[in-house]
From TrEMBL, chain A:
Its EC number is 1.1.1.79. It holds the Pfam family 2-Hacid_dh_C. The keyword Oxidoreductase applies. This is glyoxylate reductase (NADP(+)). Belongs to the D-isomer specific 2-hydroxyacid dehydrogenase family.
Length: 313, 321
């Protein structure tokens, strides 16, 4: 398969790069983008794209690659891939569901604990020597709180299962009610926000869920409310979130994703009631191996004319 | 009017006392030893001969000497769950009752233990620092962490707090093992009678036990070597359960993988070698420092004192085991 040309549109872990280079001829987007001649030369040869949550395959790129057969994303989200275009062209799209569910759900709870109990602030407090001058302040208990989950899919359900062990009361908002779940359903996200203290964003990013957490939702959540975002930055109206935090209309936030990664709104960098993570929800050694293997397996299946393992379409 | 309220001695004010001082003072008349210019022994000899009850925190030692100066003492109410600061044999000899924080802190302590383990494995505080230093656009993605699910977690001390930690970590897919003074009936987690063996079979150790003569420096070099280079230690018990000098050396030399510490041998002093390590998360003994726990603690302390002064059963008595 070494003559199959694969375009990598964003950096991925070294483990995946090595596996790809063993099997295929790999071009990295950064090198290609700055070299229009190279792009012209290879555009007729590229049969696969490997993208990530940050950069996938838009219409322009897909149009430039007439031999493209598959877009294999190193992510479970596929909002950066033009699915309509792919469907038109009969291009297979795969993602990496299930293998990262645990890590992302763990990350969500970790963010909530770190935000409510001010763990990062505590760590800074000790390291700076401030503890010698007096005790830390009282923070907020996590166990037993009311939590609301936006999106009760694989990741949302995994978050709920963990939260149950902390005695949380759980409610959710989804496109449709899940009759198998025992949690309270709200068909309207404002009602969900009104009735919970900690709001977890765990749904897919689509046209409908763009800025699903807006000023109205933030107001409904209220000044004791906490938002945890492990979905996509664009789920939240970021400027509204920032001003709510600065003005005390929201108690805190734990954010793993931002609208313009890796840029983080500067105003957040000085706040003690936020925890900031560099889109690391699935960033463990174990899961990155599992995700990488799944990308490789999907590509190999495609080029062996077998059904891919985890198709999006 | 204060003179008609029951008298309670406070040697040094526990944080909950300071926070709720007005409310406390409406119910009891407090002898405030720390406000007196007299040295403690003299103050007690002068003022505390008829004192029946003491309110203290976990960091105020109630020594044999202090007890000797309190001939009428019948009750010690401590705001801590731990009892290592109290001379228990002397209390037993004098039939002095003790009431502690019971189980009201178990949730908050368990939450912090889980949070610290998560922080160490998933590098939460380190990555937060990374972003605040402006490094994400410059250096790209942060180094990968380690998955919590599937990890074998050895709980040292399966009391009220240890059980709450276990319950939470099970939901994350961890495999729970434990060491305790005795194997617990009705618990299906594998029991290890020896903490070294527990460490050898675990990816992480969470210290939830009391500090006693038996547990002092129980987590020593041998235990840490058994835990191994990828192993993580979380301590929400007492600093002295771990040989701190040895822990620092193991961390600095990479003999263990990381640590999350809420307690230290000489608080608030923390070994400064730890400040440069990214695989260590430090916490200023705040496992119970939430608004909710302090409010519950106030209710419990008042409840215990009121029960005592009206000859009723204490709400959270410490019973001899």
């Amino acid at each position: 398969m070494e003559n199959i040309c694969v375009l990598l549109t964003y950096p991925v872990p070294e483990y995946l790069v090595q596996k790809l280079e063993k099997r295929f001829t790999v071009f990295k987007f950064r090198e290609v983008a700055s070299n229009p001649q190279l792009l012209r030369e290879i555009s007729n040869s590229i049969r696969a794209i490997v993208g990530t949550s940050v950069c996938g395959a838009d219409a322009g790129l897909i149009d430039a690659l007439p031999k493209l057969e598959i877009v294999a994303s190193y992510s479970v989200g596929f909002d950066k891939i033009d699915l309509v275009k792919c469907k038109e062209r009969g291009i297979t799209v795969t993602n990496t569901p299930d293998v990262l569910t645990d890590d992302v759900a763990d990350s969500a709870i970790g963010l909530a604990l770190a935000t409510l109990r001010r763990m990062c602030v505590c760590d800074r407090f000790v390291r700076s020597g401030k503890w010698k001058k007096g005790d830390f302040e009282l923070t907020t208990k996590f166990s037993g709180k009311s939590i609301g989950i936006v999106g009760l899919g694989r990741i949302g359900s995994a978050i709920a299962k963990r939260a149950e062990a902390f005695g949380s009361s759980i409610s959710y908002h989804s496109r449709s009610e899940k009759p198998e779940s025992n949690y309270k359903y709200y068909s309207n996200i404002i009602d969900l926000a009104t009735n919970c203290q900690i709001l977890f964003v765990a749904c897919a990013l689509t046209k409908e869920t763009h800025h699903i957490v807006d000023r109205k939702v933030i107001d409904a959540l209220g000044p004791k409310g906490i938002i945890i975002n492990i979905g996509r930055g664009a789920h939240i109206d970021e400027p509204e979130l920032v001003s709510a935090l600065l003005e005390g209309r929201l108690a805190g936030a734990g954010l793993d994703v931002f609208e313009h990664e890796p840029e983080v709104p500067e105003e957040l960098l000085g706040l003690e009631n936020v925890v900031l993570q560099p889109h690391a929800g699935s960033d463990t050694v174990e899961t990155s191996v599992a995700m990488s293997d799944l990308v490789i397996d999907n590509l190999e299946a495609c080029f062996q004319n077998k059904p891919v393992l985890t198709p999006v379409i | 009017m204060a003179d008609q309220l029951p008298q309670v001695l406070v040697l040094r004010p526990p944080p909950v006392f300071t926070l709720f001082e007005t409310q406390f003072s409406q119910k009891f008349h407090f002898l405030r030893a720390w406000e007196s210019p007299l040295p403690t022994a003299e103050f007690l000899a002068t003022h505390a001969a008829s004192v029946k009850a003491v309110l203290c925190s976990g960091s105020t030692p109630i020594t044999a000497d202090i007890l000797r100066h309190l001939p009428s003492l019948q009750l010690i109410v401590t705001t801590s769950a731990g009892l290592n600061h109290i001379n228990l044999p002397e209390c037993r000899r004098r039939s002095i009752s003790i009431a502690n924080a019971g189980e009201i802190f178990s949730d908050d302590c368990a939450d912090l233990a889980v949070g610290l383990l998560m922080d160490v494995l998933r590098k939460i505080s380190a990555a937060d620092r990374f972003i605040r230093a402006g490094l994400w656009p410059i250096r790209g993605d942060y180094p990968l962490g380690s998955k919590l699910g599937g990890k074998r977690v050895g709980i040292v001390g399966l009391g009220s707090i240890g059980l709450e930690v276990a319950k939470r970590l099970e939901a994350f897919g961890c495999i729970i093992l434990y060491n305790s003074r005795r194997k617990k009936a009705n618990i299906s987690y594998p029991f290890y009678s020896n903490v070294c063996e527990l460490a050898a079979n675990s990816n992480a150790l969470i210290i939830c036990c009391a500090l006693t003569d038996e547990t002092r420096h129980m987590i020593n070099k041998e235990v840490m070597k058994a835990l191994g280079k990828e192993g993580v230690i979380i301590n929400i018990g007492r600093g002295a359960i771990i040989d701190e000098k040895e822990l620092v050396q193991c961390l600095v030399q990479g003999e263990i993988g990381g640590a999350g510490l809420d307690v230290f041998e000489n608080e608030p002093d923390v070994p400064k070698e730890l400040f440069t390590l990214d695989n260590v998360v430090l916490s200023p003994h705040v496992a119970v420092f939430t608004q909710e726990s302090f409010s519950d603690l106030y209710d419990l302390m008042v409840g215990n004192l009121e029960a005592f002064f009206s000859n009723k059963t204490l709400l959270s008595p410490v019973l001899d085991e």
